[in-house]
Every structure is written in C-alpha cells, then in structure tokens.
Amino acid sequence: MDSNENQQQVNQPERNQNPNFKSHLLISILILLLAIAISFSVTKTEYYKLQLLRLEFSSNSNLFQTLLGFLTPTQKPKRTQIPKPISKPPYCVLWMAPFLSGGGYSSESWSYILALHENIKNPPFRLAIEHHGDLESLDFWEGLPVSTKNLAIELHQTECTMSKTLVICHSEPGAWYPPLFETLPCPPGAYQNFKAVIGRTMFETDRVNPDHVKRCNEMDYVWVPTEFHVSTFIESGVDPSKVVKIVQPIDVKFFDPLQYKPLNLDSIGSRVLGSQTRNSNSKFVFLSVFKWEYRKGWDVLLKSYLEEFSGVDDVSLYLLTNPYHSDGDFGNKIVEFVENSDLERPVTGWAPIHVIDSHIAQTDLPRLYKAADAFVLPTRGEGWGRPIVEAMAMSLPVITTNWSGPTEYLTEENSYPLPVDRMNKVTEGPFRGHLWAEPSVAKLRVLMRHVMDNVEEAKARGKKAREDMIRRFSPDIVANILADHIQTMLEKSSV
Ligand SMILES: *[C@@H]1O[C@H](CO)[C@@H](O)[C@H](O)[C@H]1NC(C)=O
C-alpha cells in the first residue's frame, strides 16, 4: 500500500497486440529512462551506475548497448555464457516484480525466484524475470550476492513466446495493466494474449479497495500469502475461484543462526536516547526492523519500551529502519515524539534507543539478528512480515501483533503473539476508512519484560520458531507448492 506514494500518474499506454512484446518493452524502458534522466537530480556517478544497472537488466538491446558504449566507452558489460539445453520447454513463466527496489515485494519475489531456481530440476517451463512495479535502488542491487546478480542477468535474457507464457504480476494491483503510475505495465499488453496472467499481491488492512478488487478480477488467478488474505480478498469481492494461497519461502540456510557471528552493535547505529552504555555486551538487546511509517507501530514500541524500562535496566533497543519513500533523520523524529508525548523521563534516565539508518547489506542482515536477544514489532497490519519470519528463522523469540498476515505462522509455542486492543480506522492515505489493529501498549510492556526475565523460555520459543519456519516455509517446500500450481495451470489452459 505504500509503494506508489511518490510516483506520478502517467497516461495509459496504448494496448499492445504485437507478439514481439519484449522490444516494445524496451522502447518503453528507453522512454522511461530518458524521462528519469531529465527529471532526477542524482549525482553523475550514481546516474551512470543506474544506467549500467538498467543496461544489465535490458539485454538484447542494441539501443542500450550503444547508449552505454557512448556514456562509458571503455566498459563493456560482461555476459555470462549460458549453455544451451538440448530441448527447451516451450512454456515460460515471466515473473514481473520490483526485483531491484529492495522493498517488501522485492525480497519476496527474489525468494520465489531463488526457491524455484534451486529446487526444481527440469521444470516444464523456462523462467524469465522483468523489473516492474517500483523504482530501482542502486544500494539494494549492489548489496545482492554476486550469484543472485548473475542469475538476474541470466533470467532476464530468457526469450518467451507470448501465447506460451504465464505472466505473474507480483506487485500492488495499482501497478497492473493499465498502471496507475510510471512502471512497465503487467501484463505487458492485453491480458488475453498470454496463456494465463496471475496477480500476486497482499494487503495490510481488513479489506481491498473496490478498484483493486476489479483489477484482481481481471486476472486469471490471484495468489495471496495467507488465510487472512484469502478471506479478506473474498469478503471484499474478489472471485473466490481465483484466489489461491501460496505461502512465502524463507531462506532458512541463509538465515541460520549457526552460520554467523553477531554484528558488533557498537560499530553501527547511533544512540538517540538514554545514556552512554558502558558495557553493551551484557545488555539484553531488543531489535526491531521496519520501514518508517505509522503502520509499523513504532509509536507503540517507543511508548511501551520507554514506559517499561529506564536507565537502571540492562536493556537496549535497536531500530533498523529505512527512509523508503520517506525522509530520514529518525533520531530527531524519535526525540520529537518523546517530547510531544506524555512520557516522563525516569529519574535514572531513559532506557537507551539506537537507530541504524545506514544501509545494511542483505549479506550482513543475519549478523544483525544474531546480535539481538529478541525481536519486537507491534505492527498495525502486515502482508506477510518478512523481518518477523527472518527473525524466527534466526531462532529469535519474537513479539509481534497477532493480526493480519502473521497469524499464518504465529503460535503460543513459537513466539509471543501480541494481543490487539481494538480495531482502528486508517485515518490517512489512500486506504482511509479501512480497519487495522491497534496493538496493546500495556500488553507489549508485559511481554517485553517477560521475555527479558525468562530467557530460557524465550530461547525455547525461538528454537521452535526456526523449526516451524523450516517445516513450513523452506524454499524446497514452497518451490514445490509453486511448481505444482504452475503445472496445473499449464495443463488446464493447454486444452
Ligand atoms: C491470536 O489470534 C488468533 C485468531 O486469529 C486466536 O485464535 C489466538 O488465540 C490469538 N492468540 C493470542 C495469544 O492472542
């Protein structure tokens, strides 16, 4: 719901009936690129790097090669040589998602691609990917493992025939054809030209907007991640025969606590509240990971933490947050929030709060979880809650709101589900009037204190959390669920 806030309305692109849709796509990328070149004030090197990124992502384009050659004559991008299989399956699965944005849909889409790539040997389809649905982030691309980058370039080169292609539009419905903001349309052209078109989406409130319902019903299928979404989508008017639950994979090998040493927390982040910690190693560390927006309940977290703890407690709170579509300077925002609240400074001083707002490369993320003793996120609503399952895979005890997407996997045995006080109306943004959860400040205080005072119990829940993640959401398990659905669709529509 937040990925299109800063994007512009554009005119509806013309319907495209040409089977050679990739070249049309490239022309539209070029137009987009020129528009961006004119309208964005990024530094020159950043700009060229972004060009290079786009180039890598738009292979088979002489136009792009020429453009890059013109800008940086000495740098020719290297192409990985892919051995040609003897017989290729005629079918394609074209996955269109914000692969390069680094947001929630981005990491989700990568998790499916990697799961399929690594676990399905000899699939009855070829996999192709295309960036769609959000802006590219250079930081995110650069933080990706080299193997993932190479795979991205390889899969982007897959040639597909329209009529034999299943398109998966993995984004918010506003990005689907015709898109409401500047992005490659998905599907690229009319719905009927493809073998099937699937919308993969989710939502963080109790309902789906009528316009999004309409867009969902244009699709052949709508994949959602949880039972919560199956019911909210159907209740909102999405055709029940189209709604399919496909859970999200979590890379339990990458997020494996045994593989990592903890990140040194003293070396990252900045203290915005509380006194200098003399011995940060002995402290109980709460970690929260979220994009800075009201929905994530950071106000509830700060209130609970600062009311419950003070300078005498051996505790600290680390917030990994990012200015994804909002401005930074979270330190000031936190101080401002505390000053404007009815919180009273304890005589022993505030319990310390640290903010990490520098970019943490994906490859360092497990080490950050490893440095924490518990994960906490009193969110008002989640589609899936990626940081939550990452923390669970890392065997952390998790305290998070028992509502929306996370109800798919939270239990009393594997976590500390945070009860909801009441449902509240969303008061701003395009989803005003929807309902979401108001997590309980009082109960969050109790749970945070409890986890800190019952370390053994908390560790046992963390252990169970990892077991549940492995059992239900391992990439091999989800890849097979996914491949089965794709297989069924290919069989159904090939009559
Ligand atoms: C969490 O919510 C579910 C319903 O979605 C409920 O059955 C369960 O008892 C709740 N757990 C807690 C601890 O509130």
TrEMBL record:
Read off the SUPFAM superfamilies from this record: UDP-Glycosyltransferase/glycogen phosphorylase
The highest taxon in the source lineage is Eukaryota
Keywords associated with the record: Membrane, Transferase, Transmembrane, Transmembrane helix
Molecular function via GO: transferase activity
Keyword RNA-binding assigned: no
Gene3D superfamilies reported in the protein's UniProt record: Glycogen Phosphorylase B (3.40.50.2000)
Could you confirm whether the keyword Transferase appears in this record?
Answer: yes
Annotated membrane-spanning segments are: 25-43
User: One Pfam match, by short name?
Assistant: Glyco_trans_1_4
Record's protein name = Glycosyl transferase
The source organism is Trema orientale
